[in-house]
Amino acid sequence: MSMSAEAYRQTIRERDFTAQVIAEAEAAGWLVYHIPDWMYQSAFASWQRTGNRAGRRWPMRGFPDLVLSHPERHEVLFVEVKTRYGRQSHEQQRWAAALVACGLRVELWRPADWPSIEHRLKGAGE
């Protein structure tokens, strides 16, 4: 028995959903900036090993998962990707608020939002 597209979207892992968003964005002409989990974890491990960080927080904590830029539309979009039940951390909320305060667009995308995400990426959601 095969799973419906909607049922799949309810169970997809965040990294798989992120990969799906990236593929759709690139196909629609967006430039995509994303730090993959393995790179983030490697950089974090390196940061932990180095001394000289007393009183400093991990600098990448909370930054949005994706930065999308569409050169033809002159548009930049920051996206936080979450699973169905994923919650934004306090740091993620702070980053989103700071970026919005600067006049930038920040969006939270979940698998259930896929039809509107596709619509947005293809240019119809401005």
Summarize the structure.
The protein contains 5 helices and 4 strands.
Description:
- The protein is 43% helix and 17% strand.
- It is globular and about 40 Å long.
- It has helices spanning 5-11, 14-27, 37-49, 90-101, 114-121, and strands at 31-34, 66-70, 75-81, 105-109.
- The chain is an alpha+beta fold.
- The protein is built from five helices and four strands.
- Strand 2 and strand 3 form a beta hairpin.
* Count of individual helical segments: 5
Radius of gyration from CA coordinates: 16 Å
Strand content: 15-25%
- The outline comes out as globular
Instruction: Give me the side-by-side strand order of the main sheet.
Output: 1-2-3-4
- SSE string: HHEHEEHEH
The count of DSSP E runs of length 2 or more, i.e. the number of strands, is: 4
- List segments where confidence is low: pLDDT < 50 over at least 5 consecutive residues: none
Give the biggest beta sheet: 4 strands, mixed
